[in-house]
Amino acid sequence: xxxxEAPEQELPRKPELVSSGNNLxxxxxxxxxxxxxxxxxxxxxxxxxxxLVLVIxxxxxxxxxxxxxxxxxxxxMFFVPFLGAFVSGEPxxxxxxxxxxxxxxxxxxxxxxxxIFFWLQSKTGNQVYHWLxxxxxxxxxxxxxxxSPLDGGQxxxxxxxHSNRIVQSIFIILSIIILFYAGVATRNYFLLIIIYxxxxxxxxxxxxxxxxxxxxxxxxxxxxxxxxxxxxxxxxIRTVMIQHIRALRNVDPEYxxxxxxxxGGYLKNVLTAPFESDLSNWQxxxxxxxxxxxxxxxxxxxxxYAYKNLTIV
Length: 313
Known about the structure:
- The longest helix has 32 residues, at 281-312.
- The protein has 11 helices and 4 strands.
- The chain is elongated.
- By secondary structure, the chain is mainly alpha-helical.
- The chain has a domain at 164-276.
């Protein structure tokens, strides 16, 4: 072969996606960063910071345990300063029932524990119990608001809108509008960060949705795990995906890219586990009643508490 001749390019092959590291280590590092940032901003309230972290960890462990129980792969927890934390995992199938339980497993136990501490505080007058009750009830109650990406918003998407892409998009847009109004009205400009993340999510979902629509029109299945893809299936999905995701516009659809693992990472997000509509109408009703009860209970409780104290004064 001539030394000046360019090497022959190969057809794209499915790359092996290697895990980025130990999930427990990343969780602990993000938790340390979370505590450190809060300590810098609220140095005089270390006890308050530690209680807040305990409340958030308790909430996220509910999601974590539920995902593990339902056989999710690569379950991990990550903390983000001023935004809270999140748990992610890869399900073998998308079950409405399992997802509803997973979403409720974070806030509902937190509401129940908050009620216990509220009762203990009323009996003992202990200030730590009061703080714990307040944090558990308020933070978990807020998390149940019907706004995406909070648990309440995701729950409604799962129960009613999962199969309707247009309604799901409208729901996200309404969430952005509601959060913007709340941020301006309360001058809580940290909500702008959530709004920005929602806009990014909306644009990303739109590009993924475009890829899936074209795959469906071409008769190409994307409801399978990445590990089950053959090289031929990978190439078919890859070709369509490159046309619709802006970050991949410079990737050659015919030949393997020097950063093929990055392309594989995008493609993995296009894939989805098979969807199972396994919530009956009465089960949906139960889920909604549990959601409404858990959402309204902290409000009713603290309105009654405030009224009682005002009456006493």
